[in-house]
Amino acid sequence: MTGTLCLKAVGKDFTRGWEQVRALEDIDLEVARGSFVCVVGASGSGKSTLLSLIAGLSRPTTGEVLLDGVPVAGPGPDRGMVFQTGAVYPWRTVERNVAFGLELLPLSRGERAARVDHYLAATGLTGLRHALPRQLSGGQRQRVAIARALACEPEVLLLDEPFGALDVQTKEDMQLFIRRLWHECGTTVIMVTHDVEEAVFLGQRVITLASNPGRVAADVTVPLPGERDLTVKRDAAFLGVRAEIEDLVRLYHHQA
Amino acid sequence: MSVLTEGGPEPAGSPGGPGTAGPLAAADAASRESPPAAGDPSAAHLDLTGDTAAADGAAVAVHAGTGAGAAAFAPLPRRQPPRRVPRVFAIRTPIPRPSRLALTALSVLVPLALWQLLSTVIDGRPDYLPSPAQAWAAGLDLARDGLLLGDTVASIRRVLLGFGLAVAVSVPLGIAMGAFQAGRAAFEPVIGLLRYLPASAFIPLLALWLGIDEMSKVALLFLGTVFFNTLMTADAVRRIPGALVDVSYTLGARRGEVLRKVVIPHSLPGILDAIRVNAAAAWNFVVVAELFAAEEGLGYRIVRSQRFNQIDRIFAVLVVIALIGLTIDIALRLLRDRVGRWTS
Ligand SMILES: Nc1ncnc2c1ncn2[C@@H]1O[C@H](COP(=O)(O)OP(=O)(O)OP(=O)(O)O)[C@@H](O)[C@H]1O
Ligand SMILES: [Mg+2]
Q1: How many CB atoms are closer than 10 A to CB B112?
Q2: Out of A81, A92, A230, whose CB is closest to B3?
Q3: Do residues B10 and B155 both lie within one domain?
Q4: B38 contacts in A (CB within 8 Å)?
């Protein structure tokens, strides 16, 4: 089966001035195909570093990242990435943003257009296809970034605090939206967030990172049904898991 | 959002809600004072509607009263509200179209009027400071003789050659310096140094090496603009956000594709800005170059008019130089605004 991600004893050091900083240490992680995993942790615990290692944008100092048993050698369209800021191309219209990855492939014009149309519709952007990013709201811009990544049909979708800058209502819309997309596409999703409620609502598993150096402090399986709507956030089970993970984050933050 | 109904907002009929300014203001102050208890989702949700807070305005007001006095400072002095100023003087505020047009007209007319005034009052001799009308007449004279057209064409051709060559070299070099650390390390020190050598200081050297004909003038224009344009292009290229490059790699782009489809489109408006600034410099240099040993060109026309004491002609040529410079600038600005429509 494709899309199984495996991190083996992954560590990452940075040099800051004269000293070595250990951002991540001894991360062992296995993410099954098609699962939705959220990563939480205090600021500076290495969440973004972890995603960039999986994306192949940086190399681990120790250990290795394997996708379907093959070591990740660099960034590629099988691991789509969505940054907190969206990082959409400001000079390209919405549809040309979504088309970016497809333009690099030997596809006919018609096929490319059909795929773009599909992902624009899936992300509710059809009406905005000719808009420039500066004319979009923050949530719309994030949807462009997500559609652009999904158009490449990634095996793993990496999301780095994609809804961090959104207001509560838009954020909840986006949470429902990303769950629906995940159901439709069946992609493995790994999402970093500092919002524990969001992590518990979206993830089947929530991984808590400890700081200094970043390690896996806890790996909690969320005991909630696959089908969730916003009312689940009021469930006793939900609130229990949420409180548990919030305590974990706090605990491993103060340890720093 | 309809999913969340229990405990939902019902603010419409809440007592003491809208209309009572006092409690509202107090509630506002208090909500800054004490955020709702975290971890209690229903309280957090209720707080999303401002009116509910106002509903228990009285209780909140007491709260605010005790809270605000905690610091042991004397009350902060308040300044008088600022004087209202006309919109024309407000920072970054759009002004009415008539005001804008009037100001633009004034910026041309006032110097023109001053010129006229100086030429009549201070001196009066036509060969010392000619009036605008005399300069205009001299310009017409030059144009009738066909000299003006020939000079203009000669100057513009030199700019196109010299500055065009500079752009052809500096833009690729600047992109290499902006996009690759290696390019920067290799070229920035030497170019940073060379740009401080005044191009006009090369005139004697260029005359010795390349003779006194076209070659040396084109070379001067090239030297005068190529270094600045390279560094400014590199700066424009470097302004690309790292996330934009990174995300392109995760979408499957290769190095060359990132350069071609991401780095260059993103920096194009900045590159055109650099070209616009340096085109002005190029236009200055061509006149300088023509002051020495030329047979035609606007700079040459100035020197020649000086030799025959035709000061009105000098002014006519100066005006033509300014107008052509302005035209080049406007054309480049229009191009830049078109290319950079996505910015701002
Ligand atoms: N390029 C770098 N050079 C040096 N140190 C770095 C670099 N990138 C990250 N770090 C360090 O690694 C640690 C983890 O950083 P990272 O950005 O992964 O944290 P994070 O969990 O994503 O935090 P946040 O929630 O604030 O985004 C931090 O201590 C940071 O200072
Ligand atoms: Mg981060």
Answers
A1: 10
A2: A230
A3: no
A4: none
Q: Are B309 and B127 in contact (CB under 8 A)?
A: yes
Q: Is residue A83 part of a domain?
A: no
* pLDDT tops 80 at residue B148: yes
Give A88-107 pLDDT, tens digit per residue: 999 999 999 999 999 999 99
Rounded distance between C-alpha atoms, residue B11 and residue B191, angstroms: 67
Q: List the domain range (segments joined by +) for residue A73.
A: 5-78+155-255
> Is B37's Cβ below 8 Å from some Cβ in A?
no
Q: For A217-249, how does the pLDDT look when each residue is reduced to its tens digit (9 = 90+)?
A: 999 999 888 888 888 899 899 999 999 999 999
Check if the beta carbon of residue A220 is closer than 8 Å to that of residue A196: no
Q: How many domains does chain B have?
A: 2
Nearest CA to ligand 1 atom 2: A14
- Which of A76, A85, A229 is nearest residue B252 as measured by Cβ atoms? A76
Residues A38 and A199 sit within 8 Å (Cβ to Cβ): yes
ipTM of this complex: 0.93
More confident residue, B47 or B205: B205
- Which whole-number Å values give the CA distances from B70 to B22, B33, B66, in the listed order? 21, 11, 7
**Region of residue B21 (left: phi > 0; alpha: psi -120 to 50; beta: else):** alpha
pLDDT band at B294 (very low <50, low <70, confident <90, very high): confident
Q: From chain B, pick out residues whose CB is under 8 angstroms from the CB of A87.
A: 241, 243-244, 246-247
Statement to judge: residues B134 and B51 lie in one domain: no
Q: Is the peptide bond before A213 cis (omega within 30 degrees of 0)?
A: yes
Task: Verify that A201 and A92 share a domain, yes or no.
Answer: no
Same domain, A182 and A60: yes
CA–CA dist A123, A177 (Å, integer): 8
Report yes or no: A99 and A151 within 8 Å, Cβ to Cβ. yes
Domain that holds residue B31: 2-72
What b-and-e string marks burial along B185-216, b requiring 16 or more CB atoms within 10 Å of the CB? eebeeebeeebeeebbebbeebbeeeeeebeb
Tell whether B150 is covered by a domain: yes
Judge if A16 and A95 occupy the same domain: no
Backbone angles phi, psi at A2, to 5 degrees: -95, 160
Indicate if A177 and A136 belong to the same structural domain.
no
Q: Which residues of A touch B3 (CB under 8 A)?
A: 229-231
Residue of A49, A91, A144 to mutate, interface with B, max B Cβ within 10 Å: A91
Strand partners for A205: A37, A221
Below-50 pLDDT ranges, chain A = 1, 256
- Whole-number mean pLDDT of chain A? 92
For the whole model, what pTM was predicted? 0.81
Same domain, B145 and B13: no
A256 lines ligand 1 (CB under 6 A): no
Among A202-206, A212-216, B211-215, B307-311, top mean pLDDT goes to A202-206
CA distance B216 to chain A (A): 41
